[in-house]
Predict the structure.
Amino acid sequence: LFELRDSSTNALVAPDEFKISFFDLDGGAVSTQELSISGEQYNDYELTDGSYVKVDTSTTIHTFIGEGKVIDNPTTPGDLTAQQRAVTVQFTMFKRSSFSISLSVGGWTV
């Protein structure tokens, strides 16, 4: 569970709009990485052209699956290579103070 809180009061806050990115959804012959989120929790998502992330929105739980490429881990979010951007998903959310996302790596859920 991710919660957005005021740093002074610790009260939950719901900004008009915010974006959150998840990096390094790569995969390979040994394992894949999969991010799952309810479609009701976000307003939009963005992938780069040529993305290696497969998207399944056929159920209420949407999955974003890294496929076929093992890419070097990013060290600076503002300075990603084209390959690192290709395994990144960015969500846009409106007026939300919390959301849940699960991450599975090779069958293990975090």
About this structure: DSSP finds one helix and ten strands in the chain. The first helix runs from residue 82 to 85.
